[in-house]
Amino acid sequence: MFSYLAVVMLGALIGIGEVISRYRDAPSRALATVPGVFYVGLNGGSAAIALLLLQESGMKFGLEENSTSLPWVQVIVAGLAAMAVLRSSFFSLHSGDKEIGIGPSALLELLLDAADRAVDRTRAEGRAEEVARLTRELSYERSRKALPLYCLELMQNLPPDDQKSLAEELATLDGAEIEDEVKILMLGLTLINRVGPGVLRAAIKSLGQRIASSRPDRPLETEDPGSPVSA
């Protein structure tokens, strides 16, 4: 039973790692959705089935029956084998520029997409309120360069690909023919999705009146204990 518990935990940890890696601002929220829980459970259950098949087949990987290392080897092999099988495709279909894998990987992708939509639905209102509150006294013209650069410096280890895609999004936003009042909201939303509300809040607080609109005479309000979006 200990071997099965260990292999389920291994499979579940792999699934948890994949789910939370998709969310920068609040990764734990994805695990609270039904698709997220099912995704983690599927990984853990598949690892347990793989271990059962290994034990029933009598595979010992060159070890003796009474070897203390055998259960651990079986657990590791079963966990990795389940991960490989679940992420495999029997063949691929091309739909326009997109390649669609047919096989177990398609089920995992569907679950991750469902988790994405569930998290987006539950967090959309909170993100909108948080961004509106944080940016309501900011000037887009003053913030458009300083705020993203300062957020990136605070993050330090944001992957180069993420930095590149962020720069492209900001360039598109800068060239959009919309009012600055809308642009500053979209700038805040873009940054909060990349670096999280805590970093954005800290950046706005540090930059202070340097990026504020000329209209407010009071300090920027960046702290709201009752905010629906957690850092």
Task: Give your account of this protein's structure.
- There is one protein chain.
- The chain is mostly helical and 231 residues long.
- It folds into two domains: 2-112, no CATH class; 136-210, no CATH class.
- The protein is 68% helix and 4% strand.
- The chain is built from nine helices and two strands, in the order H-H-H-H-E-E-H-H-H-H-H.
- It has a two-stranded antiparallel sheet.
- A hairpin with a 2-residue loop joins strand 1 (91-95) and strand 2.
- Helix 1 packs parallel to helix 4, helix 3 packs across helix 4 and helix 6 (140-155) packs across helix 9 (197-207).
Per the principal axes of the C-alpha atoms, what is the gross shape? Answer: elongated
Terminal Cα span: 39 Å
Helical stretch tally: 9
Q: What's the main sheet like? A: 2 strands, antiparallel
Widest β-sheet, arrangement of strands: 1-2
Could you estimate the helical fraction of the residues in percent?
55-70%
Beta strands, count: 2
What would the average pLDDT be, to the nearest integer? 79
